[in-house]
């Protein structure tokens, strides 16, 4: 995924919300970003500063909550956090698992005036 297109879609959502809710200004944007989305928070911040100029979300603070990678192992039934680097079930070292969390990316909430 590319940060620029992702950041644009965040701004779009914010502007739509602002239009619907008749907000004057967006102060804070709370995002949730999964560990394995590959999205870099610093890049999102960087692009947002540029593309939000002159919009209702100019100067908004972006707060990014990281979501850890969690799996459900189909072999040993382990359910919990997995180290991204290893990509193996921490309990049985198997690779036969389902990813529960870590792939998500969404706008959790915005704070407005
Ligand atoms: Zn396992």
From TrEMBL:
The name this protein goes by in its record: Hydrogenase maturation factor HypA
Entries under InterPro entries matching the protein: HypA/HybF (IPR000688)
Keyword match Metal-binding: yes
Keywords: Metal-binding, Nickel, Zinc
Function of the molecule: Involved in the maturation of [NiFe] hydrogenases. Required for nickel insertion into the metal center of the hydrogenase.
Annotated positions binding Zn(2+): 73, 76, 89, 92
Keyword Zinc in annotation: yes
Binding, Ni(2+): 2
Family in the record: Belongs to the HypA/HybF family.
């Amino acid at each position: 995924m590319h940060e620029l297109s992702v950041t644009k879609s965040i701004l779009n959502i914010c502007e739509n919300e602002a239009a619907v809710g008749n907000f004057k200004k967006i102060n804070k944007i709370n995002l949730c970003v999964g560990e394995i989305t590959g999205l870099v928070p610093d890049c999102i911040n960087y692009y947002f500063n540029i593309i939000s100029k002159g919009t209702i979300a100019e100067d908004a603070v972006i707060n990014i909550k990281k979501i850890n990678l969690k799996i459900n192992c189909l072999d040993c039934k382990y359910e919990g956090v997995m180290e991204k680097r290893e990509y193996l079930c921490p309990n049985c070292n198997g690779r036969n698992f389902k990813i529960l969390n870590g792939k998500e990316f969404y706008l959790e909430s915005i704070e407005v005036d």
